[in-house]
User: What shape does this take?
Amino acid sequence: MSLAAVNLARWGEVPFITAWSSEEALPVRLVVRDGRIAYVDETARDRDGAGVLWTRMGFSPGVGVPRFKSVHSLRQRRAMHRLLCQVCGTPCGKSALWMLSREEYESAEGPWPAPVMTAHPPVCPGCVERSTRLCPHLRGGHVVLRARRVVPAAISGMLYKPTRDGLAPAAATIAHDDPRIRWLRAAQLHMELGDYDVIHHGHMIITGSGWRGTMGDRQGRP
Assistant: This one.
């Protein structure tokens, strides 16, 4: 679904991955089956290709009120796997750009060019400026990356632990290949970006490089 389909004049610009008030998490009953959590009435659509169980949410973009601080789990996952722009929803393909906040970039394994992990899907070149304006997490400083290697790295959601009183949940983010994934009810997919170029710096200091940039400065590498 394109951004135009949900860009109602009343709300202005609404990013593709934004959840709407009509898209509530659906009630489910969890059980343990075959050594992992499962829905009582589970269908093939509840799991991804790797067998991970995903949160059920209603799907009705454009209906109700946009919840700008919330992400729709299915659209977020589709945007990651299919490289759809998180703002307009169109395929990015080889033009995909990744916008990271100062916090995301500086929490990488080390200074550039260490791999970085993000839960924010890519943006198309035409939505870079728009994303900066719409996303509060970018306003404190950000970078724009062009990555040549993008792989699933982690999943966040509710991690369940079997106890004598039933399943005890806790919010968690775990590696994509962590064996505990069978106890996770997933909500967001995180991708690892490697072999990348920093092509834009917005009001921030690039760690490990000694390069200081402001909005409008642009170069292939820091």
